[in-house]
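Quarterly update from the structural biology core.
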Amino acid sequence: MKKLLLLVVSCTLLFFTVQAQTGHPPMEDVVNAIKTNRIEDLSRYFDNIVPITINNNQTIYSRNQAEVVLKDFFDRNVPKDLLIMDNGSPNASTKFIIGTLLTPSGVKYNIYILMKQKNMDFYLQEIRLNKE
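Predicted structure, tokenized:
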């Protein structure tokens, strides 16, 4: 019985160790969600309200509204690539990226994404998409 218990505990610890090693940082998940046009994956990082700026027009949306707005934007501007120009962490609880979103039609958007930590998890606090 002790061997079975030891086996179960060992397998459980191994599972959590492997899972922790293959997990991606939140900002990497956000970038990959945008690159692959998977807004539902991006929306996992939405806070209760999400400020979105598109072509210098900022609006604050609820989680559900933000998902609809970004899905519409990315359906009209399908990402071809997302080039990261700068990224950083001014402090342990804040992360940002600045980059260029490329579309198949050649239209480019400057993109800024800000994430902040809240209760041990990171949430998207702001996203800006402005045509170059």
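The beta strands are 49-54, 57-62, 81-91, 94-102, 108-118, 121-131.
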